[in-house]
Amino acid sequence: MSAGGLDFFVLTGFLGSGKTSLLRDVLSADTASDTAVIVNEAGEVGLDGVLLRESGDDVPLAMLSNGCVCCQAGSDLAFTIDRLIMAPRPDGLPPLRRIILETSGLSMPGPVLRQLATLAEHHLRVAVIATYDLTRGLAVATFEEAVAQWAAAHRIVATKADLAPQALTEAPVAIAQLNPVAEGIVNADRAALASAAFAPLAASLPLRDVAPDLAAAHPRLALCLVRPPAEIAYADLASWLDNVAGALGERLLRIKGLVKVHEAPGPLLVESVGTMFSPPRQLSAANPPAPFIVVIARDIVRAELEQVPPSDLFAFSWRDPDSGAAQPRGIRAEWVT
Ligand SMILES: Nc1nc2c(ncn2[C@@H]2O[C@H](COP(=O)(O)OP(=O)(O)OP(=O)(O)O)[C@@H](O)[C@H]2O)c(=O)[nH]1
């Protein structure tokens, strides 16, 4: 560990609000070589680590997939942090000064902060950074996860300024209303935004765990892992995605996946935030995971998704994000090389 201690940033924010993109921006800065990253995804298959590696960064990177860290009582997070701190630094990299944990978009910050409390011997200076998606603004405030993330934040970072320039002017006021004691970080320049979001911490900040523990951590949300066949026609994929958006409407929160189509040599990255799809693009990363699509939605009946045509192409496995003790499962920790 570096002599001056470590800054530990918990990067939180609702589904699809721009966490991974902000992290890519900070890792592409020249100053990022003192940083290590832990990525947590609610789904069984972790895509964010693959996307971060795709941008060519060689900082130590650990994935915690198969469940969001806030739902786990176990010590995988603490164990992973411990290992990152104790591991010898890769050749040519300066001492570790900063760790960034990207939580899943469903994570409540309180349980994560409580797990960090078990690491007192490392004298971490902890800060919570939450994203505020300018394209959606307060629309996600109907989710207690989003409200808890903003409430716990020390810094709230306005993302996607290029997509919603008109919302940029109002953002400082909107952010102050969400959490008057958080520092609002608003900048149309992405590099400057990322740099301010993860600027060094002078001291440990008071941690705010204001959200109550809920009986069910994510009461309205369902998560489905959809397995497409090894290869599929692009037209089938496109019409299925269209039909999912049509069937679920505003209850669709996030789609993220990798699909192999006949028409392209590499797997296609498909994703939506709500029903807004990004244009599919070929993934350039080596060793991508097997084809999969994660669908996260609220207030749905499983059959609604399973019957979306062409339904006979896909296999579905479901999980409530708050599976709790009835369906115990382990977060998988793995190092991304
Ligand atoms: N144009 C534009 N698109 C952005 C920006 N930030 C994020 N996006 C897009 O928004 C979508 C979601 O961004 P991510 O960075 O994956 O969001 P996330 O919060 O990490 O998503 P989850 O981990 O699934 O919760 C992707 O299609 C991004 O390319 C931005 O500043 N500008």
UniProtKB/TrEMBL annotation:
Transmembrane segments: none
Domain CobW/HypB/UreG nucleotide-binding positions: 9-180
Domain CobW C-terminal: 227-307
Catalytically driven reaction(s): GTP + H2O = GDP + phosphate + H(+)
Any single Pfam family the record assigns to this protein: cobW
Keywords: Chaperone, Hydrolase, Nucleotide-binding
InterPro entries: CobW-likC_sf, CobW-like_C, CobW/HypB/UreG_nucleotide-bd, P-loop_NTPase, Zinc-reg_GTPase_activator
Keyword Nucleotide-binding: yes
Keyword Oxidoreductase set for record: no
Biological role stated in the UniProt entry: Zinc chaperone that directly transfers zinc cofactor to target proteins, thereby activating them. Zinc is transferred from the CXCC motif in the GTPase domain to the zinc binding site in target proteins in a process requiring GTP hydrolysis.
UniProt-recorded name of the protein: GTP-binding protein
